[in-house]
Design goal:
The chain has 116 residues and is an alpha+beta fold. It has one domain. It is built from 4 helices and 6 strands, in the order E-E-H-H-E-E-E-E-H-H. Strand 3 and strand 4 form a beta hairpin. The longest helix has 19 residues.
Length: 116
């Protein structure tokens, strides 16, 4: 069964634009749908032309509990990164020690919330 994408008219144009799902973006850029959702939720850290660290985020909307990305927002996101010398949609993969540290910090916050 094919589910319809969110439809919206383009600015200055009465034609209808199809919004993309994270799966469609993932196929187009040969990354995981999880990576696309990370772009939406966390963004990507990059270094601009002046050497400053910046974070670029992919803007999306949740419709019925599912993410939708407008093609213009995807183009803005990719242009921001490629204009800054970013060549690949692959984001940093955490090392085992980084993962352990992140998990331990998460456990600590959870224990504090539960009062243990």
């Amino acid at each position: 069964m094919i589910t319809p994408n969110l439809l919206a008219p383009s600015p200055g144009n009465s034609t209808v634009t199809l919004w993309m799902t994270p799966d469609e973006v993932a196929v187009a850029y040969r990354v995981s749908p999880v990576t696309v959702r990370d772009w939406i939720n966390c963004g990507v850290t990059y270094t601009d032309d002046a050497g400053q660290k910046r974070v670029a985020g992919l803007n999306g909307k949740k419709v019925g509990g599912r993410w939708r990305i407008h093609p213009d927002e995807l183009a803005r996101f990719i242009n921001t990164l490629t204009g800054a010398g970013w060549e690949s949609p692959v984001i940093h993969r955490e090392t085992e020690s980084e993962r352990r540290h992140r998990v331990e910090a998460c456990r600590k916050r959870l224990a504090e919330r539960l009062g243990k």
